[in-house]
Fold these 2 entries.
Entry 1:
Amino acid sequence: MIEMYTQKIDGILFAIALNQQQIITASFGENQQTTINNVLGNVPFDMPFQFFHEPSAFAKKTFVTLNDIYGGKDAKNNLALATANLPAYTKKVLKATSAIPIGYVTSYGEMAKTVGGGPRAIGNIMAGNPFALIVPCHRVVKADFTLGGYGGGLKVKLELLGREKRGFSSSREIEVDGEKLRILPTEYVLRKIA
DNA sequence: TGCAAACCATAAC
DNA sequence: GTTATGGTTTGCA
């Protein structure tokens, strides 16, 4: 049985689907319509599910983390994600995305260089990210530091990045699965937009 | 700047 | 199997 929960915090609605141990999908938005739809769309078609009003402990913890990330806090989350039935390449991309620390961004192209494949394939996977906020797909932008797209709307993507700036001034490299990924200060994006 | 072509894993037929 | 689809990138005028 899949458990679904919603919670409204500061005017924004978070929705999640959980099994006992893992997060199946998470979404957020300003209205029920899109938020709930997103969650439903990512729940396996043949699985029974039920909405719950009172959040379980796991659900509470998840909501707190979501709200922290949304608020630009460096929420160290070790939430268990249900990635098992996702395609291998998708898993790889989501994992690399999760490795981007707060205060930095990278581009679709850089990600492609790191995990293989092409920039557009990366974009496709970001667009379908089942774990909104938890996998920080908002930290992936275009090579010229314009925003690219965002499921939750470009305005939100920009707001998130605005809260995440940490004053870093130069690019650096991190390692994911033994491959190098080039990351750049969030400021580069903010400056470009301004 | 702006446009066209190359790019590449997925999902949908 | 094949085709269509992008949250892209690059090159060239």
Note: Strands of chain A lie at 2-9, 12-18, 23-29, 49-51, 104-107, 140-141, 172-176, 179-185.
Entry 2:
Amino acid sequence: MPELPEVRTVVKFLNTLKGNHIRKIESYLPKMFSSELVDKVTNEKINEVTALGKYIIFHLDNYNLISHLRMEGKYFYKDYYEKTKHDHVIFTLDKGYLYYNDVRKFGTFDLKNKEETFTTPPLSNLGKEPFTITVEELNQKLKKSSRAIKTLLLDQSIMTGIGNIYADEILFLSKINPKTRGLDITISQIKELIKNSIKVLNEAIKEGGTTIHTFSTNEGQGWFQLKLNVHTKAGKPCKICNTIIKKEKINGRMSYYCETCQR
DNA sequence: CCCGTGCCCTGGCGGC
DNA sequence: TGCCGCCAGGGCACGG
């Protein structure tokens, strides 16, 4: 499931394609990529690809194409044409083909005029990334909520970029129980949360992301799964204190944590 | 306004 | 061995 580090990895790869025009688009899933999008995007040039949280932004000539991979969306580039299973959108470029592949069909595409890109949903709903949020800004959002900190870390309108894997890892490093209410989080804990969010995300970016289910790119898979402390470690001993890692659903999201280290 | 729930979708896995 | 049923999971619509 692509979170900020995986999206950064994909964007790095997509930027190798900039300068290409999108000469033709085949959409096999109009619900995901409508014929109106096909018409508008055809013949536009990919000038730049950037990321915001978990969103990919293709900067075209007249529009910005916003892509979200959700659970299993992937981009593949080949210099030849070969439609495979679960390829839903195929972009013919000046040189080669870009394939959008998505087993669960959860991914989304939005097309925006340049000036409305960041001022309309979905991007206008996002909080800052952990790299730029301040302690005071995060405090303002957490202190009025009785929801669990795990849930709040997943709320993209508070901070953007963190998903289920990294939320568990960040809480472990910060020694915070995932069920702690937002309003019970102290200022020093907020400092820890921001510090560890940056640390975990940067390390994961360095590893090319985390491959737990199927995340991969043309560059291959990511390797951060080898550095996970708690996520997917149910039944195994905590690396710090040997307590067995607990697996528990919190507000509908599977969560992994150490009951001893995270109080 | 705030929060919880259900939905989208399909491969993989547990159970029998 | 084979088949059925259930589950994961990000973001959004909806309802209390």
Note: The longest strand of chain A covers residues 87-93.
